[in-house]
Write a structure and sequence with these properties.
The chain is mostly helical and about 100 residues long. Helices cover about 75% and strands about 0% of the residues. It is built from 3 helices and no strands. The longest helix has about 30 residues.
């Protein structure tokens, strides 16, 4: 069985919608972060696939993918620092309960 572009795009679309669904339905800040990471990984799959099938032998899509991974890593570090700071101040990481920031 040969794997075509549509297979990768279906996986990427499923990942994107799972990330969107998780972002809008979850209350935990860590779950929101994981949902955003899922959406970023879906776009990285698209970059790599379109590079492979539209521009074979070239590396532009792979560079965009590496750039996306670097952005995801930086975003994760900043988000974890924010979550730790919120937890230290409020003692809660649920978004519904974070209404009054002590400070």
């Amino acid at each position: 069985m040969e794997i075509h572009v549509i297979h990768y795009l279906v996986i990427s679309t499923i990942m994107m919608f799972c990330g969107i669904y998780g972002f809008f339905t979850r209350k935990n800040l860590l779950a929101l972060l994981i949902s955003v990471e899922l959406m970023l990984n879906a776009t990285n799959i698209n970059f790599a696939v379109f590079n492979r099938y539209l521009f074979p032998g070239q590396l532009e899509g792979h560079f965009f993918t590496l750039f996306g991974i670097a952005i995801a890593a930086a975003e994760t570090a900043v988000a974890i620092a924010i979550i730790i700071n919120v937890y230290r101040n409020v003692k809660q990481v649920l978004t519904d309960d974070i209404t009054d920031m002590k400070g």
